[in-house]
Every structure is written in structure tokens, then in C-alpha cells.
Amino acid sequence: xxxxxxxxxxxxxxxxxxxxxxxxxxxxxxxxxxxxxxxxxxxxxxxxxxxxxxxxxxxxxxxxxxxxxxxxxxxxxxxxxxxxxxxxxxxxxxxxxxxxxxxxxxxxxxxxxxxxxxxxxxxxxxxxxxxxxxxxxxxxxxxxxxxxxxxxxxxxxxxxxxxxxxxxxxxxxxxxxxxxxxxxxxxxxxx
Length: 191
Description:
The structure is a single chain. 76% of the residues lie in helices and 0% in strands. The protein is built from ten helices and no strands. The protein starts with 8 loop residues before the first helix and ends with a helix.
């Protein structure tokens, strides 16, 4: 934006406003501008809760669930859309309840899709690094194997032998989980 030859005066003004706002907010504590913290302080008479510092593992879990729920729901949606409507209509004609239809027909049909989602999620969880690094910096109760390897190697530990050994363990576990995931996926595609 700064080196754009076709920039307008409005663009320069917006950029200047952004820079001034960032510099002004640099010294303000997040609790001072957080609406939830203001609600706790003024509305309920409570102090603000800093969840990431008090509950680091739970905060990472919440972020991962928030990040991966849409993908897992797409897998479940694909499973629901692949269920033949004739089977559901036959169950309805036979007088099956909605819960019975779900328990006896839909849930068994969704089982391979749930297995696939679980295995893909597990593969991803083995490799989680960025949330731990950004949110907690590997603080207490939030260090996992990839972050531990980072700490032991280029993160300041300089113990490259141990870091390499841990990395090999992570790779082997990832290969085992990926093999299981591929078997489930091939079974899903065959069935």
C-alpha cells in the first residue's frame, strides 16, 4: 500500500488512522477494551477472567474444537447425504419412531464417517504446534510433543540428539495413525 503508484489520498488517510490507532492501543491492557471483561467488572461486580493464563490446556482445546468442528460436520453431512432415502421412507412406512430410525439406520450408516473424522482429527492432534506456540508458549500443562521437540532443538535447548529421537517417535506414531486412517478410508470407499 505504501509503494502503490495508484494510491488515493483516502488510502493514505486510512493507513495513517490504522497506525495511530495501533500506537494508541499499544499501552492499553486487553482487559480495558474487552467488552466481556467490562461486563464482568461493571455488570456482575467480578474481576475479569484470563482464561488462557489460568486454563491453558482448556483454552487450546476450545480453539481446536472451534477450528475443526466445521470440517467434521462436513464429513457427517456427506455421510447423511449418502444415506439412501428409500431406506428412511421404508422405516417411516413400517412405523418406526424418529429415534428408532436414527439409532437403527442412520447411526450405523454414519459409523465409517465418524471413524474417518476421529482418525483425521487424531492425525492432526499429533501435529499441533502453532496453537501451543502462539497461545501459551508451551507453558505449564500445555506442552505437547511437537512443541517439546521445538524447545529441545532450535527453541533454546540445543539438544539436537534428543529432539531428533522425539521427532522420530512422532513420525512413527503419525505413520501408524495414518495407516489406520487409510484402511478405514479404503473400507469406506469400498463399502
